[in-house]
Amino acid sequence: MGTSVAARQVFRWTVRNATSSVCSPLQFWIYPLQPLCTQCRLFCSSSSTLPSAQRSKPVTELSLRSLADLGFTDIQAEQIYDSVSKARGGSAPKHVLSTLTSLFAMGLNPSSVLKLLEKCPELYTVKEPQLQQRIDNLRKLGLVEGSLQRTVSHHPQILTLPVKTIKNVVVFLREKCLFTTQQITDILRDSPATLQENLDQLEYKFQYVYFRMGIKQTEMVKTRLFRFTLDEVRCRHTFLERRGLYQTPDKKGQTAIINPKLDSVLNIDLDTFLSNVAMASAEEYDVFQRLMAREWQEQEHYGKIEADNDDKEEEDDDDEEEETRGKSGYSKRRKK
Fold first, then answer.
1. Distance from the Cα of residue 171 to its chain's centroid
2. Residue 195 or 12, more confident
3. 197: nearest Cα among 220, 175, 174, 172
């Protein structure tokens, strides 16, 4: 009987061990499958969404890396990034990268773009659609490849001007000054700062050279007249005129003496002008400049006084007319 009991215990122990040896591997394999699949699903989900979203999102944020991708060196990228950050109070505008891309599309290299931005930091604030519209407008006005790049590099402020402003100046040059289309293109290429001048001052400069000096449009463009200020033109011309070396042509365009060419009056340095054209000393010209400055200030002062008096007279005339109308109306009412 003891043997049978012992046999039963051995049997139970064998069955228990057999069950644990069979079931435990199953439990080992089944249990880890759940977290493994879960991790797999998480991994697959992240790989299918995040990278694709990152790939489809365009790079619009200004950073040193994005500037380097455009072709700037590390030093150039730091200069641009610092300039933009300071201009915007520490927050770089999102449209700067697209603006830089438009400048590169013009055919400018990174060094040229950097110099452009150093000359005219206002370009950082111009959005890409506006910039592209202005570039296209300049091309329509005759600034072809090569001329466009040189003009923009020399005077980048031209890209900050609205298209309407440029059109107004072009219309003025064509209708008021009677320049041809090609001459206007030459003026924009050689003297782009003309686009930022006051139209009244521009008209006065043209009329002064045309009527007082007797210079035609072709010679104005050839000499690049609009690169010079009105004071520079008047001072040199008046100095020659008062020394008897320049005469205003008559109605037929004739003069008693041979006037020097406009190019020899303006397109030479002061020493050459004094020695070869005016035949005077630097001291004489210096005294003359100071006297002319005082004379022009007095003329402007008296001109303003006369203009104010004319306005006052017009106001008085208007008051008298209104008073007369009032009296006449009152008399008519009394007659009734």
1. 21
2. 195
3. 172
